[in-house]
Amino acid sequence: MTAAPNREEKTIAEHETLKYSLLGPSLTKSGQDNVDQNKVSEIIYNASKGSKYFNNEEARDKNLTQKIERILTKKRQLEKLDLASDRRKADEYIAELELSRDLSQVVVHIDCDAFYAAVEELDRPELKDVPFAVGGGVLTTCNYHARKFGCRSGMAGFVAKKLCPELIMLKLNFDKYTAKAQEVREIIVDYDPRFESASIDEAYLNITEYCRRNDIGPEEAVEQLRREVHEKTKITISAGIAANAKLAKICSNMNKPNGQFSLPRERNAIIAFMRDLPTRKVNGVGRVFERELDAIGVKTCGDIYQYRQYLAKLFGDKAFAFLMQCYLGLGRTTVQPAEEYERKSVGTESTFGEMGNPVELRDKLRATAEELEKDMVRTQFKGRTLCLKVKLHTFEVFTRQVIPPKAVYIAEDLYKYSVPMLSKLEQEFPGMKLRLMGLRCTHLVSMKKPDTMAFFGFKRKSTSDQPESESPSSDTAKRKADSLDNDGEGQWESWPDELLFEDAERQEREDEMQELETLSQEIDKRRHHGKEIVPNPKKGEEVEEEWWDCPICGRPQATSEREFNEHIDLCLSRQTIRDVVQETAESRSRDQTPVPKRAKMGTEKGREKGVPGDPKQRRLCFG
DNA sequence: GCGGATCAC
DNA sequence: TATGGTGATCCGC
């Protein structure tokens, strides 16, 4: 074969993958079954061709193709080697995972059907029979009529219009969706008071206890839940019922919309289910990983097994572990409120018309900093690291970060420390024009006043043999109260908005805050020092009684939050902050026990992400 | 630890 | 005319 046709073939092949990529990330969403994807792909391709976005996508696609070439080359090398040891390691891992299999829990994933569109339809019934979408330049979602034309979430508005010229575009009414989501959560809380919001329209529930208490089967319970939600909110939801969250999530997509699917909680049924399941159906496998897996011959989760000896070397240990769990159909069986997840960053970004003027760019940076300050104040965090993100007019994305001398959150500081990064980028890309700018703080430090047990990480542990002590009703009430506290106000009463103060006073406050922050970190570290600080049930009969070791004086303290806070206040006033920090540092150096890591939020590759307990975010959620 | 990349929603 | 915002994780260096 000559070189020319080969190159041509390659170009065609590359365009095929590009076209596939251009279809967007939500290809697996429902409503696309009877759509001629080739036709849709052609329209999208032609609508996009030549644009800067297209060119960038093309470049990315070429890079991925090269990356896949490298993967294949590596695989061919591995094939020549003796991988018996790798196969044995994989088999040992599988055996180990198998031992951890827990089929005792009934986990449910629920997902509102085309949620934003459904809410809009309630207000405007005439929309029911016409294709329409919600969102601005990019579709946030669209109804099922629109999906028949190939429209999808994440698609550019003008492309959607090409696919469906009659498409009606609606602006987002975020408050409306939030209110509706709240209605839904008020119902599902009765099925699991500790349900977990995955987003505004998705939630995980563990209904094991509900089924036991009401002597009802899981499928029947979920049918009842869906019926109840529909009757009371007029929203239809789809649900998946399975032994763990990963499977439940997959199952909720099986009979969408307005349907449910239950996967038996039996090993054989689960293995059989995974065997024929395309990898892309698993949460965490996106367009890229799907292509990479496909390239080596893995199309379904069942295919994973025969390639097990290659996976770690080709994709890394994390991906290996993830894939093994996919093959076995394993996932977490725990469900917990989103507020209990720990936030790791706060950021803001925005897109705008091409901008290259350095003065304008600095104005934009200042505005971005001011936006971020609002979010930092709202969430009560400072950041030890500040990250600047820019997207050039070519759609290329770059990030740069700094560690300011102190934790930051005030716009002035955010700006001051990010300007040099912007200047450096301007040097790096002379005449650069941006279409997006963003700022993000990471390595967060809490600014919450240290007067609650929650601050120290103490949570009332429900006595396991006393489920009534944490009855659904009381928890519901508490969680409803939480949701009303939507701005985190009331936790910072004695420290009003910084902006109200004159600069000098502000500085003073800041220094004080800095000290508090240092204290909080020290105590935080110490808290994680050992399990011994967690609440211990008192020996004896009174199981309800609990006590805590004060993290400052070390003495055991009473159980009520009020008493505990009073003690902490007393302790703090007796001992200066400096003393505490000193003492804590000493105790740390005495005790060489490694600080236990916080519970990880997700599993490998960001699977099973939770939503941080940020009010802004929480507003988006059921939880 | 940094920067790029991927992923979910 | 023209393709989002927020947050998380993983990998290679």
UniProtKB/TrEMBL annotation:
Residues 107-286 form the UmuC domain. Residues 582-591, 601-617 have a biased composition (Basic and acidic residues). One of its GO terms (molecular function) is DNA-directed DNA polymerase activity. Residues 464-475 have a biased composition (Low complexity). Transmembrane segments: none annotated. PROSITE patterns: UMUC. Pfam families: IMS, IMS_C. Residues 459-545, 582-623 are annotated as: Disordered. Gene3D superfamilies: 1.10.150.810, 3.30.70.270, 3.40.1170.60, 5' to 3' exonuclease, C-terminal subdomain, Classic Zinc Finger, DNA polymerase, Y-family, little finger domain. GO terms for cellular component: nucleus. Residues 484-502 have a biased composition (Acidic residues). GO terms for biological process: DNA repair; error-free translesion synthesis; error-prone translesion synthesis. PANTHER family: DNA POLYMERASE KAPPA, DNA REPAIR POLYMERASE UMUC / TRANSFERASE FAMILY MEMBER. NCBIfam families: PRK02406.1 (NF002677). This is DNA polymerase kappa. It comes from Hyaloscypha hepaticicola.
